[in-house]
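Incident review: delayed structure delivery

Summary: a single-chain prediction request sat in the queue longer than the usual turnaround. Root cause was a stuck worker, restarted by the on-call engineer. No data loss occurred. The affected request and its eventual output are reproduced below so the record is complete for anyone auditing the incident later.

Affected input:
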Amino acid sequence: MELMAAIEGLAAIADRRSVDLFTDSSYVMNCFRDRWWARWETNGWLGAARQSVANRDLWERLIAQTRRHDVVWHKVKGHSGGFGFGITAS
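Output delivered after worker restart:
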């Protein structure tokens, strides 16, 4: 669901925009902060353990959406009473 929230949120923005994307998902945040996705693409979608990356189809969709926009990722604390995901675009 963390991946789908980001995919659908970015897909809902029609034109190329500067986007602030807020997530409580360390998995999603770390992928883009540490550029795991670039290594996955280079290595034929194999992770650090040389095994296939889980949810490759969703990651590919999310990566495609991030290439459509100028995305700045923000990590928020999970389970703090607020929302764990949000997008603002300008």
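Verification: The chain has a mean pLDDT of 89.
Action items: add queue-age alerting; document worker restart procedure.
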